[in-house]
Amino acid sequence: PPPFADGFEAGLINWNLTGTWNVATNGTHSGTYLLTDSPQGSYANSSDSYALTAVNLNGTSWPVLRFWDRVRMGIGDWGRVEVSSDGSSWTPVYGASENQVRDAWAEQRIDLSQWRNQSNLRIRFHVWTDGAGTEDGWSIDDLSVGENTGAAIAYPFYEGFEGGLGKWLNGGWEVDTNNPYGGTGAVHDTVVTRMSPDVAMALTLGGPLSLTNAVNPQLTFWVRGKLTYRSYFRVQVSTDLGLNWAELGEGNLNYDWTSDWVRRQVSLQGYTNQTVRLRFVTWNIYGTAPDEDI
Fold first, then answer.
1. Residue 224: C-alpha distances to residues 134, 260, 262, 286 (Å)
2. pLDDT value at position 287?
3. Per-residue exposure over 117-149, b if at least 16 CB sit within 10 Å of its own CB, e if not
4. Terminus of the chain with fewer CB atoms < 10 Å: N or C?
5. How confident is the model over 87-97, as pLDDT tens digits?
6. Rounded Cα distance, 81 and 178, in Å
7. Element (H or E) spanning 263, and its range?
8. How many Cα atoms occupy the beta-carbon half-sphere of 70 within 13 Å?
């Protein structure tokens, strides 16, 4: 049960492993050990392996998976974080992309509220590769599952992403300084050319937003990018602490959409006098890849 933390210093007693997943000591984020799919160098061609653990989320309010990772993936090779309440149906919540090379450690914070009532939520780091070319692979360190400690968000709220993503849960999203709409930063969902196949990546406001005493609340933002075939962008709201999410249709963008910066406005009037959670989500089907800035 949370709070659960694993820096891999005590071995892998909390994990089930396939393939060559194991601990290594090369360039950890902290301490002596990290978890990796390829501890002896590059991963193998034509492989499919994972490292799996499980947590009991009964009694949690806002559970969040946190970990630090670095990635070196070749073309045609992919990694995903997947969760499952039954061990057979898996939901991808984060991806390591093909042709991605990031030697610097980055923190990922993934909202698990949709599964907070599950007593045996499996979490696995899953890597599969094609038959052409290899790389150093995926390294994980300082993993934890615990309660989100984000403070309530005051209304009205403004975010220009000039100060990073401290107010957000950001599995895979990163601040981008390349041609933002205003100021020096935007947030970008696809750092390299493509997302990992069939992954939904959420950027979730890291605290509840109270719309008490709001008269006509409106969510406005600027967005640019490209949605390839069978990729989507959604703005979503939850009124039950993140267990279920409703789409705010005015913010929807569908595949075959391409644009420079354009303003979007979404009414929140139906949620006045409520406390809500908000998130942006991009996802793709069959290996396509959205590519957006907000």
1. 33, 5, 6, 23
2. 56
3. ebeebbbbbbbbbeeeebbbbbbbbbbebbebe
4. N
5. 999 999 998 88
6. 27
7. strand 257-267
8. 15
Q: What pLDDT sits at residue 32?
A: 97
Q: In angstroms, what CA-CA distances link 186 with 24, 193, 259?
A: 35, 17, 16
What pLDDT is stored for residue 285 in this prediction?
78
* Span 100-110, average pLDDT: 91
30-53 burial code (b ≥16 CB/10 A, e <16):
eeebbbbbbbeeebeeebebbbbb
Residue 265 structure tokens: 């406005």
Collapsed DSSP state (helix, strand, coil) of residue 268: coil
Angle, CA of 114, 294 and 177, to the nearest 5°: 120
**CA 163, 289, 102 angle in degrees (round to 5)?**
55
Structure tokens at 2: 């949370």
The token pair that represents 221 in the structure block: 């933002």
- pTM of this prediction? 0.93
Query: What is the largest distance, in Å, between two alpha-carbon atoms of the chain?
Result: 60
Strands (E), 129-230: 137-147, 168-170, 174-176, 186-188, 200-205, 209-210, 218-227
Which segments of the chain does DSSP mark as H helices, in order? none
Q: Which residue has the tokens 């393939």?
A: 19
The Cα–Cα gap between 76 and 94 comes to 17
CB atoms within 10 A of CB 195: 31
The tokens of 41 are what? Answer: 């160098």
Of 122-126, 203-207, 254-258, the poorest mean pLDDT is in: 254-258
